[in-house]
From TrEMBL:
Pathway(s) served: Carbohydrate degradation; glycolysis; pyruvate from D-glyceraldehyde 3-phosphate: step 3/5
Protein name: 2,3-bisphosphoglycerate-dependent phosphoglycerate mutase
Organism domain of life: Bacteria
Gene3D superfamilies tied to this protein: Phosphoglycerate mutase-like
Cross-referenced PROSITE patterns: PG_MUTASE (PS00175)
Binding residues for substrate: 8-15, 21-22, 60, 86-89, 97, 113-114, 156-157
EC top class, as a word: isomerase
Keywords associated with the record: Gluconeogenesis, Glycolysis, Isomerase
InterPro entries: His_Pase_superF_clade-1, His_PPase_superfam, PG/BPGM_mutase_AS, Phosphogly_mut1
Site (described: Transition state stabilizer): 155
Family, per entry: Belongs to the phosphoglycerate mutase family. BPG-dependent PGAM subfamily.
Length: 200
């Protein structure tokens, strides 16, 4: 049995400014760095010895992972791949979320942010899953089923798509799933890929 741990990056500058971020490469805030340190301390206390880590190619996830590994005082292989990037928000990237609600209405913005099928002028969550899940199966879960403990640091929606696949959520159920920043999701997975337990 091995462990798969998912962590959403700490607060970014555009999280703080309540803006749609997507593929825009923005750094962590001081709070975001503290959240990353907290995630590292939680994982250090858990005693999990990681064999490999995965992250996106965006700086907020990369920096979060680097801080976590510093706290853990460990050096392990790190694989960066754009398959784990946040969903692409298209025309919405950079816009203030509250202002966008004023323009388009709360209901449609909620659908853009949380629904599975409806794209927010860019990728839908389904589109995001079409790149994250094949990478999850091909690389991440291969490591896990080979008995390696794996740490994945990515983004709210790329992780939502992964959690949806792992926990078999329906498109309706995934609308209510929010991945908080800096909180490790820990899955115990057997060599057949079956989830034995999960905790946050």
């Amino acid at each position: 049995m091995a462990k798969l741990v998912l962590v959403r990056h700490g607060q970014s500058l555009w999280n703080l400014q309540n803006r749609f971020t997507g593929w825009t490469d923005v750094p962590l805030t001081e709070k975001g760095r503290e959240e990353a340190k907290f995630a590292g301390e939680v994982l250090k206390y858990s005693g999990i010895a990681f064999d490999v880590a995965y992250t996106s190619v965006l700086i907020r996830a990369i920096e979060t992972l680097e801080i976590i590994l510093q706290v853990l005082d460990t050096e392990i292989p790190v694989i960066r791949d754009a398959a784990l990037n946040e969903r692409f928000y298209g025309d919405l990237q950079g816009l203030n979320k509250d202002r966008t609600r004023e323009i388009y209405g709360k209901e449609i913005v909620h659908l853009w942010r949380r629904s599975y099928h409806i794209p927010p002028h860019g990728e839908s969550l389904e589109d995001t899953a079409n790149r994250t899940v094949p990478f999850l199966k091909r690389a991440i879960l291969q490591d896990v089923t080979d008995g390696r403990n794996v740490l994945v640091v990515a983004h709210g929606n790329s992780l939502r798509s992964i959690v949806m696949y792992l926990e078999k959520y329906s498109p309706e159920e995934i609308m209510n799933v929010e991945i908080p920043t800096g909180i490790p999701y820990v899955y115990d997975i057997d060599r057949n890929g079956k989830i034995l337990s999960k905790r946050f």
